[in-house]
Amino acid sequence: MTQFQTEGSRTYYLKISRGDDFRIQAVNEAGNRIPPEMWKSYLYFLDKASFYGLTARIDGLDLLLTPADFVRLFQQKPHHYVAFNGQTAADEAWLALAGKVADSLNDPALWDHVSVDGDDILVDAAYGDAEIQSFLADTIRHQLKSKGLAPAQLPFIQHFVQQAGWDGLPAAEDYVLAAQLSEPDNDAFWSFKTVLRSKRGSSYWSPTKRRMDEPIDKALPDKWRPSAQDIKDKQSLMLSLCPSVEYYEDDRFYHAEWTDAQVLEFLRNDAEILQAFSIEVSIPSWLKAVQESKVRVKANVHSPIKKASVVGLDQIIRFDWQFSLNGHELSMQDFQQLVSENKEFIRIGNEWVRVDSNLLMQLRKMIEEAEDADWTIKDMLFQNVPEIMLDEGIEEDDPLVEFHLNKSLRSLLDKLLDKRDLPPTPIPENLHTELRPYQKTGFDYLVFMREEGFGLCLADDMGLGKTVQLIAYLLHVHGKKPAQPSLIICPTSVLGNWQKELERFGPDLKVVTHYGPARPKGENFQKFLDTEKPDVVLSTYGIASSDAEEIQRLQWTSITLDEAQNIKNMYTKQSRTIRKFRGEHHIALTGTPIENRLSELWSIFDFINKGYLYRIKQFQENFMIPIERDDSEEHKEKLRQRIQPFLLRRTKKDPDLQLNLPEKQEQLEYCPLTPEQAALYEGLVQDTVQKMETLTGFEKKGLVLKMLSKLKQLCNHPSLYLKEPYTTADEILPRSQKLERIVTLAGEIAERGEQCLIFTQYIGMGHLLQQAINELYGHEVPFLTGSMPKNQRDSLVAAFQEGKFPIFILSLKAGGTGLNLTAATHVLHADRWWNPAVENQATDRAYRIGQTQFVHVHKFVTIGTIEEKIDSLLTQKQSMSEQFIQSSQWMTELSDSELKELFTYNL
């Protein structure tokens, strides 16, 4: 450090790296890094632009420079006793490049080679090498940024910079050139002209009307006449910065008459550019403070029908329009005149206000459409006036359009907004379950929206019974024997679940499944429906997309999308195809209407109520960009208001629902076998049944237990049965609907901020789940097995309870007893244990004393296999002694015919 305190020449060796900014480090001859505070004053000693280094940016031991700063500082005259050299040849090359770029920036010919393409600044190949071109483009971009200008404004300043440089007009000794905008007197035009003032004075001079057309040298007062040519040249340069002014090189002072629209354009563009180059702009003081006028429209909305009971969303409504401007009431005639005059600035009383003529035109168009087209309540909901969705008691900050609804219309909209006091619909007598109060509300809402002609999204949390609410709705609708069936489209992994739930809760509904290679296609599909006359057709997203031609021919009684987030990507063929299907009523079921982006919500609404959230481009401008980029709370609230009538969402944390929910809900999740699993299953059964015929007693029991384990592994995944190594999630998931469903469900639970336990009897299954969840969702999932040391086991349990990871896999034997895992709100049983007590003990790791939340238990069962049959047998044997079903040993006592029936795979 002492060598920098002695007199004499000093040399700093600079290490230079380039990102968006330049990072400069300085070292001495010994290679020691020197803090920028010790040497930056020598670099900035002539730099007025940064107030001699006062605005310099320092990051640790680095000095940060924009490309423009870098060029400016390293092409200035060096300090008289401090030298800056590059530490390496590469650093020296950067310093040399700064000099070359500085020379280029001072070269008027440069601007003949510069152009703009969107936000990109381009220097063409005819000017220097690629490195120079890139550096120049970056430097120009930073110069613009430092002046608060955008690349799009570069064409308007190129001529000026070419002639005068970036620092603006050179100062004159005794005058200042300025631009002046003056308000209209008696006529409708504004005045824009070039003016002068003395450097020490504040008043502006311009030629009188009599001398306005005289040459500059004659129009000027004697004191400024020697500067006539200089004033003419500066005026030409100043006006070149104004996009509103055509190229001007006249020998007279500039003067023009402007309309309101031209003034507004000047204020938006020209004034900003002039001020960026320190050119004085004079505008009326009131114009600087002028506020956007508050044009407001109030409409008293009423229905000609007096009886509230018959008012519906299709009822034609009438409006009484009222207008005001900054609190001054206007008649309809005054409003029409205001629109017709197309002025931007008008005087009301003693104040000037600015009006948005485009907005006035839009308001007039909306009013004319409402009057001419016989608007209904439904039409109002689909207009771009979401304020109608507000309750009377809610005050938005000065809404543009206020709708005051009479009592009957407000009552109707309240039903949409609050889902309260909906017209009660009798629960179908053939619904084989009881609806909880909130489920009855969902059922009433489904029926109400159908009758009013609106689609909807039922977005209740997982486990709250979306399925049973829809089944009640289908029983109600098809109890009236409509001509066409209803269509339900779901993921393949829950197709079996839908079959079982419909059979369980709505056995009177005739259900057919449109799935599998033998399904009817083309003309045979319609013939099949005509013959079978089903109430409900079940299909999957993949099949519905591939068989779109057949499905699109029908006008379905209703179309329901289960797990509707499957159409979230609006650009996929599957999503585009399904959104075109035609139904009298469209319903979306999903617990996650938005997983990542708002475009997913748009896609769902495009299915349920096409056009309500506008075209996607307008939705992006109105909501996606302000919310996803700017996190705008105002736009979030507007979107919430807009979707509220058509989305019913209840969560398990809703205090109104907790009182009505059981503390624990158990649910069977049915999954079909894949063709690969089915073929292996049948082959194994046939081979084993033949062997059983040759065995007796103990040998037969051993074979049954061995086969039992193989079948259960096969139901989980064929790779467990075939003992294949793990490959990738993309390869293993399509081979087992059960594995895919468990992985997806666990991922969804974690994404919602909840925690779950997954129990399995097989180490291999645990590893498949571990790796697939990690690969697809990025969660590190611990797997607790019997071989895990106690201290590690205790550590994992504590970490799970503290919420440090959302998914915990446990082997049934190792994790089935003795653990307290009440942080979990979901328990997933990947494979069934034949003793219900063992399963219940595992479930009770989460559902035990200390658990304050609702616990949802999912038991996965493969359809048509031994898993489904054992589940049915266990249900039948509930009245038998606990000893009888203490283990799987009871199955070995079955007869050969009973065993054969038990093992046989039923499609």
Could you describe the 3D structure shown?
The protein has 907 residues and is α/β, with parallel strands linked by helices. The protein folds into five domains: 2-161, no CATH class; 168-288; 295-332 and 344-356 and 371-418, no CATH class; 437-658, Tandem AAA-ATPase domain (Rossmann fold, 3-Layer(aba) Sandwich); 667-903, 3-Layer(aba) Sandwich (Rossmann fold). The protein has 35 helices and 33 strands. β1 and β2 form a beta hairpin. The longest helix is centred in the C-terminal third of the chain and has 20 residues, at 697-716. The chain starts with 9 loop residues before the first strand and ends with a helix. 33% of the residues are buried. Residues 1-8, 305-311, 384-398 and 878-888 have low confidence and may be disordered.
Short description:
The protein has 907 residues and is of the alpha/beta class. Helix 14 packs across helix 15, helix 15 packs across helix 16 (495-505) and helix 25 runs antiparallel to helix 26 (697-716).
